[in-house]
Amino acid sequence: MESALREQPLKNTKAAVDVDADVDKLTNSVDKLRLDLADLGYSTKGNKQTLQKRLKQAKKNNVGLVKNEKTENTESNEKEETSNKLVNSGFDCLFSFSSQKSLPSQPFDYYLFFDVEATCEKNNKNYPHEIIEFPVLLVEGESFEIVDQYRSYVKPSINPTLSEFCTTLTGISQETVDNSPDFIEVLNEFQQWMAKYSLFQDKSAIFVTDGPFDINKFIAKQCIHDKISVPTYFHRWVDIRRIYANFYRCRQENITGMLAALDMDFEGRAHSGLDDAKNVYNIAKRMRDKGCRFKKSTKFRTYLGRECLDLAFRLNGRFQQFNLPTNVHRDWVAIKLSNLLLQYPAGITEAIVLTELESQWTDIDKEYQNGTGTRYHSIDHIYNGSFSSDCILEVTIEKFYYIPGTCFTVLVVSDNTSIRKVELLLHQKYTFLLGNHVQTSSRPFLEKRKVKLAVVGVVVSKSSIESLSGSQPQDDEKMARVSKLPRIPPTEQLVFLLSATYDRAFVTSQFGSDCLSNLRASHTRRYKLWLKILHIDKAAHTSSAAAYGNNRGQYLKLYLCDTSDEGSGAILTLYDYQISLSSMLKKGDFIGLYHPGLIESSTESQTLGDGGVLLEYTNETVIFCMTEQDAEAAELTNLMKRYPSSDPSRSEKSASQAANSIVSQLSDLAGDSKDVMDCRMYKKRVYIKNLRSHMINITLFGRIVAMANNNPYRGGKGDQPMDRYAIRLVDETAQIDVTLWEAVGHRARRLREGHYVLITGLSTSKVYKDSNGQTTWYVNGSTSCGTEIINVSTIQCLLASSCFRKIVGLNTISNYEQCHVCATVTGWYISDENGERRLWEGEIKEDGTVIEDKNSGVRLSHTKCYGHKSCLRSVTVADEGQLPYCSFCACSVYNQQDLVRIFAGELDEEGAVLYWTLDDGTGEVVFAEAGQDISAEFLNSTASQFLTLGIKGQLQALDSVVGKEYWMSMNQV
Ligand code: AMP
Ligand code: MG
């Protein structure tokens, strides 16, 4: 308090140097009034007159006790001001102690004051700046004292010699930088230093800089030089200039400006990074002592143009990952990434990607923990009457009692957002849980049980609060306002949560005996199943045929598997109002399914392959749910294990595993070598060589080297054969064939050899013995595992990323079976089957005459080649009157609409071929045979559009491509 009183009114030095004195007198004096008021802890809102009045009053009161925390808040009004005055005038003695203590708590545990120096040249803004000094002061949020510092000079690589201007400006000598580590080394070391304090991990932290440049410009440029993404800890920071201008309600100033206004001196040498940082800290400390809170103020935004993006896989192997949000998994990133690329068709910058993904992840992180995409409501919502029809609560049962004379049990539930409680009438089907036989390790099942439920309505009950409040201490004031207690009618949509600590015995006793493979549809026998959720599909509208004769509008499928050796699958279908149950569950959860309904047979069973079981949620079904982590902790992930541990196929497998050293690197994956290995949360890349049997949720990234025609599988239980496409995928470690079933296979039909794809949600089968007695297993992709395919080759932005493809010179392509080039189209021509160049109708011959004779020229419109619309591969028209047949999809093409005309090898009956000539400056020109894809890409039109252009238009279109540069992948033919 003492120091606050002694504080001098702020001096504004700026007025003296400004040119337009008249104008500035006004603004500056307003600025000054505001500075003074802020300094005394008063509101800085209002016009000059108000400010003057307020300041006068303030000085009269002559007390600066209550720090004006509201200064940042533009909402501050007269009321607050008066209350400040009251406090100031009357109760200063009383409040003096507490006000001193009540300096605002800072929102971050630590602040990193940061000011880089970089290479530069006089008057050159576009200089490729490289960081040469990287100093950080670590300040503890609570005490706001400096607790440590990190400082390193950095050796620049692009311009290793410092300009004289730079040395003079920063005081950093050539010798200093010559003997310093490079940026990546410094960053890695700095991260280790941050890790000592658990910054950005257990402890929250944020950088504080003077203006946006240190991060937005210098860090951003440096990261691009070094081919790393800007680390996430640099994505937000506190810009002291903005905080200062907000706090004192004045214009932004640089360090010297701020110091002058605050009547402080610069300590040390200006443009020495560490000293700059120290002075920024001095300013911040002063503001903090006046009650300023340091909230993040600026988001990362790049000043640089479009940059190659490397999200899934880092470019610079030397850079050590730090602070990757721990639960973000690759599938999620991959899928979001492809969505983003669709949203920004013109290309996206790394900064857009990272900020978008980061903010989406913050939203979704909770969802991943709680369920899929659920915003849980709180009990307060019920009291406010603001709950909607899809209101879902997560609550704990405080107590339960019978309503005498009825068959109703009332659960009194609470959540941690409110001290209020709500009554819930228990649905009949759950009453068995009240019995003594349903015990957890020590207490009745319902006691302190966490449940998630969909609220179907609210009735206000008359029962008094007191009778329910029990021994819990109550906040009288709040409770008094509540005279009525809401009661929730019985709900069918309720999930009981199980914990590893209490419920192991419950699970083993209830769910230990039934297994999917021995289910028989019967109306007498009731089953209790322990299943893992593999995938939760999106809700879809029922077609009338699939609606089982009921008037069901929507359905949603949960794909489940048991934990037996067979890993048998099941689908639980939820209809309409039941769909809300799915939002209480998430992929990976284990569920205890009590009395599910069994659907006897349906064509849908095909989607599960052999022996999938179809289940329904009936009015007898009860769901218990345990998170994956808890199930692992309680060793309940393989409750159905059927095989003896001496199973020969098992030991065989482990032997082969031991031999494969790469596989052993995966030992940190969830599940030991006997379990199904779930890669969902595995944060490293899984390579083809890492694969083994019994894995799920695999994401592979690789290049397609072969695609097989549809080979429908007829061995399933259904009558219909299942479509089955195979692709051969290659990555750095190996190649493997992946079978894509049904819908996923159909989606893959437009892929081509040479495409790079990211495939998520693959699984590997159990071990089979093939006809030669060899053991083998298969990689499968299907909707039931949640497989998605992202064609990376068609994502423009990624195309340019050198981590995905190595660009080679045209002169070296003969060394590669498949490669990527970046070349300019220098021309096109048509040749016949033998490679003889052919002249076009309309083409000008060497002698200057135009070919008009339709017989000596070839016409593109002569093409007789048709393609199957869904796969763009050519179809064969067997005989007149017969249906065209697509051998790739193994089906007849029924409709004319399913046919498209495509560019193909043959341009007319004689088999003319369109060639493009390319040049990439490596001295050679090659001719590329144009497949329909290339031509469509080059010409930016489909074949059928192209054919409608007429000969002149076609020539123009072809010529317009000449001179353009393309990234291409090439196959040796
Ligand atoms: P500062 O934090 O103000 O010391 O500036 C950081 C970096 O910005 C310096 O290391 C220089 O690379 C660059 N810089 C600052 N002032 C100038 C200037 N007047 N001319 C050129 N570059 C400058
Ligand atoms: Mg500096």
Automatic annotation (TrEMBL):
The keyword DNA repair does not apply. It holds the Pfam family CDC24_OB3. The keyword Phosphoprotein does not apply. Coiled coil: none annotated. Gene3D superfamilies: Nucleic acid-binding proteins, Ribonuclease H-like superfamily/Ribonuclease H. Its main location: cytoplasm. GO terms for biological process: regulatory ncRNA-mediated gene silencing. Transmembrane segments: none annotated. This is SAP domain-containing protein. It comes from Umbelopsis vinacea. The lineage of its organism: Eukaryota, Fungi, Fungi incertae sedis, Mucoromycota, Mucoromycotina.
